[in-house]
Amino acid sequence: AAYGGHTETLDSLITNGATSxxxxxxxxxxxxxxxxxxxxxxxxxxxxxxSVDHQIADNLGxxxxxxxxxxxHGAVSKVLQAHDGESNTEPIVPPNGNHHQSRLxxxxxxxxxxxxxxHYHCNLCAGGNWDICEDCRKCGATxxxxxxxxxxxxxxxxxxxxxxxxxxx
Length: 169
Fold this sequence. Notes:
Elements: H1 7-15, H2 30-37, H3 40-48, H4 64-70, H5 74-84, E1 103-105, E2 112-114, E3 119-122, E4 130-132, H6 134-138, E5 150-156, E6 159-165
Antiparallel strand pairs: 1-2, 3-4, 3-5, 5-6
Helix pairs in contact: 2-3, 2-4, 4-5
């Protein structure tokens, strides 16, 4: 609901007892997910109406303002920075490049991953459709089960090129 910007649904859930500080497997709160989705109205409602703590970072230490900047959501970033009282310019939005290039989505930070860029893939989680970007992997992200083998892969000439790795690589 948060990632999709369904503010009324979130309002109803929170009003009826769901916690606004609930965190998923990666420590992402509804505010973090709304920021990742670029949903300015939802971010504002969670902070102003429900007093959500905008300083709560995910399990990898990344705040909602970080993901907003990483994904290029300028309006969300401004709202969060106004509440943070700080400027978060560390993440750099990757160049858009070829608009026709196939893209995957990182299952941790929800950023787009061009298929021609190395990323990590789990053949078991989410029915074999689990991908992690380099940024999240460098921060220590794994798939849902840390015992699973990750494949570092990229697409070369239309074919997946894979390097087997474990979660420590």
